[in-house]
Specification:
Number of domains: 2
Strand content: 25-35%
CATH topology of the largest domain: UDP N-Acetylglucosamine Acyltransferase, domain 1
Distance between the termini: 92 Å
């Protein structure tokens, strides 16, 4: 893809300082910039690279003022990171041929928009619905009655079980599994575990992105719900009947047990474990490797540790914990002094 600096400026609604006719062929890191590329400067500690980079153009904040002569054409914007996202998206247009590959299997009763592409060896089961401009890549499986909205990207190897519903602009990366059975078993009088049928589904709202190898279990009854704008990293396990509120972000290797409810705008670090039936309010932040086992959580609270506790209390407690050997020695010394005083009396 080739684009002029003038076109980029219009794309990001910026102010151009320099040559509007430069041809940009792709993005680059500022320290590795080359002619014909565009880079960005968002953090002042990297300002020195602006004067040495070989990139032809730079995205910078609107308040950036050079302190010495520089070569790149500048595009000044309100927010460098959001503008960078728009720019990278324009360079990341996927080249797929619209239509259905010869090796794909599409069963009867499906409603597939003419603009949809379906890749090699994908299987589309009965009564599936796929909205306009969605792309189904190679070796994808869509179960019976699956519904997918507009502009979805379903990458190779994704498996979406029967009756699951996806909104518009959903992205699911390779080998994610949506709608597999929840972990439901009941122990009988003989001590054996009998399976409880999982007859619900998974509902995924608009603008959700789901990372590779993430699994989202279908509900026992009702729906496992992923709210609008949620972003899930790779290797996350979400159990049956979990609800995740709008615009919550979750890092890799998090495990959320059945029927937990996560609020809106939460931030959950990597390897966090959340027990079943826990309710986490809106705007909560949970540090990586924490374990949440209690419902005594306030909106906007920051948590850390296992079991998770208030972030500041955890740091204070951990500071004491590191000093326990010295503190124990001091206590023993004080106890001995007390005993010696008692003996002298």
């Amino acid at each position: 893809m080739k684009i002029t600096t003038k076109d980029i400026c219009e794309l990001v609604n910026g102010e151009l300082i320099g040559d509007p006719n430069l041809i940009i062929e792709g993005p680059s890191k500022i320290e590795d910039g080359k002619a014909g590329t565009i880079s960005f400067l968002a953090n002042p500690k990297y300002n020195t690279f602006a004067y040495s980079t070989k990139a032809s153009a730079l995205l910078v904040h609107k308040d950036f003022v050079p302190t010495e002569e520089l070569t790149p054409t500048l595009i000044k914007v309100e927010n460098v990171y959001t503008s960078l996202g728009k720019l990278l998206n324009s360079f990341n247009q996927l080249n797929t041929n619209i239509g259905i590959a010869k090796t794909a299997i599409v069963k009867e009763g499906c409603s597939i928009h003419d603009s949809v592409s379906i890749g090699e060896y994908s299987t589309i089961s009965k009564n599936v619905q796929i909205g306009e401009n969605s792309q189904i890549f190679d070796q994808v499986y869509l179960g019976t009655n699956v519904q997918i909205g507009k502009n979805a990207l379903i990458f190779p190897g994704v498996k979406i079980y029967h009756n699951c519903v996806l909104g518009d602009n959903v992205t699911i990366h390779s080998n994610a599994v949506i709608g597999s059975d929840g972990f439901g078993f009941a122990q009988n009088s003989s001590g054996e575990y009998e399976k409880i049928p999982q007859v619900g589904n998974v509902q995924i709202a608009d603008n959700v992105e789901i990372g590779s190898n993430t699994t989202i279990d279908r509900a026992t009854m009702g729906s496992t719900i992923i709210g609008k704008g949620v972003k899930l990293d790779n290797l996350i396990q979400i159990a049956h009947n979990v609800t995740i509120g709008e615009n919550t972000v979750i890092a890799a290797q998090v495990g959320i047990a059945g029927s937990a409810k996560i609020g809106k705008n939460c931030q959950i670090g990597g390897q966090v474990g959340i027990a079943g039936h826990i309710e986490i309010p809106d705007n909560v932040k949970i540090q990586g490797q924490s374990g949440v086992t209690s419902n005594s959580i306030q909106e906007g609270q920051q948590l850390y540790g296992t079991p998770a506790m208030d972030f500041k209390k955890y740091l204070k407690s951990f500071a004491y914990f590191k000093k326990l050997p010295e503190m124990a020695a001091s206590i023993k010394k004080l106890l001995k002094q007390i005993e010696d005083l008692k003996s002298s009396k």
